[in-house]
Design brief:
elongated; Recoverin, domain 1; mainly alpha; ubl conjugation pathway
Length: about 250
C-alpha cells in the first residue's frame, strides 16, 4: 500500500477490518467505487464470489489433491475429491464442475483450471463446495447452460489429439446428459449406433442430436425428411420406423 496516499491507505485498512477481506479485494472494491467506502461495501457484498473466496485457501485445496510429483490433479486426486464431496465420480455434477473449471481433458485439472473454477463457483473450502452441489446440479435445468455444458462435454471427453469422440464414450456421455432430459428415444439411439454405425461421433452429429432432441417430438410427427439433418439422424429415423418403435403420422 506504499503507493497510496494516507487517506486511501486508511480506507483500505478500514475496509479490510470491517469485511475481513484481503488487501487485494479491498483495493479492487475501492477502485471500482472510485474510493468511496460506502460504494466499496456495496460492490463487495454484491459480488459473493469475491467476498467468499480466499485465494490462499484455494491453493491449499489444490495442493491437497494434486499429484505428489506433479502440478496436476489426476484420477487419484479426483477420486479423493469426490470422496470428500460425497459424490460418485460418475455423477453428472462432476461434469458441471469441470465445465466451470474449463477443464481441457476428462479426469485432469491443471492448477489454473481448478483454482479458477473454484473462484467461478465461489467456494474456498470443501464444506462450502459440498454445499454448492445442489445449485450446480440445478444449472442443468437451465436450457442455455445445459447447451453450453453439452457442447463442452464433446471436447472434454474426447481423447487427446482426436477430432471425433469414440462411440463408447459418446454413448456414455449421452446416457449421462439425456437422463436429465428424460428423452424417451435415448436407448433406441444408443442401440442404433451400436448396430448400424459403430464408428466415432463427429462434432456435427453431437451438436445436431441436441437440436433433434429439443425440436423433434418422440413420435417424429414434426420430422422433415427433407430437413438438413446429418445422415446419421436420417438413418436413425428410418431405423425407428422400420423396426416399429415409432409409428409416424404423415
Amino acid at each position: 500500500m506504499y503507493k497510496l496516499g494516507r487517506g486511501n491507505r486508511d480506507k483500505v485498512q478500514q475496509f479490510m477490518t470491517i469485511t475481513g477481506a484481503s488487501e487485494k479485494v479491498a483495493l479492487q472494491a475501492l477502485k471500482a467505487s472510485d474510493w468511496h467506502l460506502e460504494g466499496a461495501f456495496d460492490f463487495f457484498y454484491s459480488q459473493p464470489q469475491i467476498s467468499a473466496v480466499n485465494t490462499r485457501h484455494l491453493e491449499d485445496i489444490f495442493n491437497r489433491y494434486k499429484e505428489p510429483d506433479g502440478d496436476m490433479i489426476m484420477v487419484e486426486g479426483i477420486s479423493q475429491l469426490c470422496n470428500d464431496l460425497q459424490v460418485d465420480p460418475q455423477d453428472i455434477v462432476m461434469l458441471v464442475i469441470s465445465w466451470h473449471m474449463k477443464a481441457a481433458t476428462m479426469c485432469e485439472f491443471t492448477r489454473q483450471e481448478f483454482i479458477g473454477g473454484l473462484q467461478s463457483i465461489g467456494v474456498d473450502s470443501i464444506e462450502k463446495f459440498r454445499g454448492k452441489l445442489p445449485s450446480l446440479r440445478a444449472e442443468l435445468k437451465d436450457d442455455n447452460k445445459f447447451r453450453d455444458i453439452y457442447n463442452f462435454a464433446f471436447t472434454w471427453a474426447r481423447e487427446k489429439g482426436q477430432k471425433s469422440l469414440s462411440l463408447e464414450t459418446a454413448i456414455g456421455m449421452w446416457q449421462l446428459l439425456f437422463a436429465e432430459r428424460n428423452w424417451p428415444l435415448l436407448e433406441h439411439w444408443c442401440q442404433f449406433l451400436q448396430v448400424r454405425h459403430n464408428k466415432a461421433i463427429s462434432r456435427d452429429t453431437w451438436a445436431q442430436l441436441l437440436e433433434f432432441v429439443k425440436t423433434i417430438d418422440p413420435q417424429l410427427s414434426n420430422y422433415d425428411d427433407e430437413g438438413a439433418w446429418p445422415y446419421l439422424i436420417d438413418e436413425f429415423v428410418e431405423y425407428l420406423t422400420e423396426n416399429g418403435f415409432v409409428q409416424r403420422k404423415r
